[in-house]
Amino acid sequence: MKQQANKNRRPDLPKNNRSKLPSGGSGFRWFYLILLSFILIFSLFSNPGSGTSEISWGFLQDSLLAEGKVSKIMVVNKEFAEIHIKKDNLDAPQEPQSISERLFGTSEGPQYLMTIGSVDAFENKLHRAQEDYPASTKVDVQYQNRTSWTGILSWLLPFGIIILFWLYILRRMGGGGMGRGNPLFNFGKSTAKISETRTESSTNFKDIAGLKEAKAEVMEVVDFLKNPETYTKLGAKIPKGVMLVGPPGTGKTLMAKAVAGEAQVPFFSMSGSEFVEMFVGVGASRVRDLFKKAKEKAPSIIFIDEIDAVGRSRGKVNAFQANDERESTLNQLLTELDGFGPKTGVIVLAATNRPDVLDKALLRPGRFDRHIYLELPTKEERKEIFGVHLRPLKLSKNVDVDLLAKLSPGFSGADIANICNEAALIAARKKKAAVEQEDFMEARDRIIGGMERTSKIISEKEKEIVAYHEAGHAVVSWHLKNVDSLVKVSIIPRGKSLGSTWYLPQERQIVTKSQFMDQICASLGGRAAEEIIFDEISSGALDDLEKVTKQAYSMVAYYGLDEKLGPISFYDSTGRNEQMLGKPYSENMAQQIDKQVQNLVSKAYERTKNLLIEYGDELEKLAQLLLKQEVVEKEDLIEILGEREVERLVENKV
């Protein structure tokens, strides 16, 4: 018996957890089956018509009453009549069905059943049928009011089935009744994912390339959780909250995963949108439950991703966009952050790429004491990031990581990971044995400009316009010293564009007025070339004009680079001006800004036209070469346009 009992145990569960199996197992299934069987059997046996045959008035009059077989007639609830047969006639061969052949019949009857319309009519018929019978053979009618359990069950049974069905659904969803595991009854509980000590997460700080300053600050938090006495003995207090701020793809969530892998303490991760539900008060309840769990497992770390979902400013600007549920969740979050004691051992990490919309009360010291800014990686950091993402790839010997880092300025870590994956897909599509340098270049072009659309059919006239348009950009860019270095020119449709001019952007921290002006002239080069060559302009310069207009307004209204308006700026770093219905300046000032922007763009356009007229021969040669081979690389550009003076000076300095 002991061996048999051991075989029935769950071998995959620890000994101390075998008694904690969910209670909704096979035992409850048998209970439901027995209960349903009992209801069905009870309804059959309690049915007054079970084992009886329903007859008509003619059969009662001609076959039963006329032959004297009826012992009594019982009218039940004034609805139907039960006909009892005399015992001497029960097994008579002339009967249509004997008692032994009936499944639920009994010798005490009734043996027949008949529905009556009304009691008075039934009595009159019975009286007329027995007028000529002797008094000893006449059958009297008896009346009885009887409670029908079948009728009651017919009402209760559907409700019982519905209740059993919901109990089954709840057990399936909750894995154990209406207890703690049921989401329908736990929507106020925190849905945070918890990683216990020695988590399975394989991410650590070695997997994060670049971001040295950010890693140093986060590692200090992790070190405090591991060795708190090092800091507390000097009277230092570790920050309660750490806010990770940066553009999308710079590694905020990856940094939090590395903390989970390094800290070796319970790590609660949750998205800001998971706090807010359609039920009022659920968000605040989840915040309380989350911090309660974290305090129970202290020291621990809470990570809230995309905290701007609940941490938006509560100012008057958002009066038309009020959300009481989100604000109550934010208030509860502020209360919990204030409620930490100095030795609680719970640290909150939060990430957002929109710090301008966060409430000031959330960012003040004492709640989120430390703000860590994750910026786009520099060239050296991009090289390190490429090294991380190139590890799992099978690379060719001609892959130059330095060149890849140089040709990807402004790329985030997520962009670099996408380039590496796209290059591997391209190499696999071409059935190559290893990923080569040209695969990375093709992946970069595809991510920036979109996929080549070689099947897109354009007319010869449109192709010529596109060639001169792109040649105009290239010639102007080549002869202006403050424009980024030109890499190649293409008239192959890619993405939404019919042609493209590829640059190698320089990494600048500030931009001067002359650099702004040269960039505007380079953007207007395509439209100016169309006007000079065809004496007509097209809609192909839409993207260029949009970019030029935004740059001009930024120069005048934000950076204070206009001589007439002077050093004033209407830029709002808090982002609240965008939510206001009006502008932060008067109508007179708006007219002056518009006029200065128009003058600035007009001067840049005239300068661009004059430059293209001066180098008209180069424009013509480059356009014809584009029409011939569709893509012009830098070597061809040097051959047509000559050595660029700016790049020659840089090479000599190097």
Explain what the structure shows.
The chain is α/β, with parallel strands linked by helices and 654 residues long. It folds into four domains: 53-147, name from scop; 193-373, Rossmann fold, CATH 3.40.50.300; 379-447, Helicase, Ruva Protein, domain 3, CATH 1.10.8; 460-653, Up-down Bundle (Methane Monooxygenase Hydroxylase, Chain G, domain 1), CATH 1.20.58.760. It is built from 22 helices and 14 strands.
Alpha-beta content class:
alpha/beta
Q: Could you tell me the mean pLDDT?
A: 78
**CATH architecture call of the largest domain:** Up-down Bundle
Structure summary, number of beta strands? 14
Rounded to the nearest angstrom, the distance between the terminal CA atoms is 88 Å
DSSP summary: helix tally: 22
CATH superfamily of the largest domain: Peptidase M41
CATH topology of the largest domain: Methane Monooxygenase Hydroxylase, Chain G, domain 1
Proportion of residues in extended strands: 5-15%
Helix content: 40-55%
Q: What summary fits the major beta sheet?
A: 6 strands, mixed
CATH class of the largest domain: Mainly Alpha
Low-confidence sequence ranges: 1-25, 92-106, 175-182, 649-654
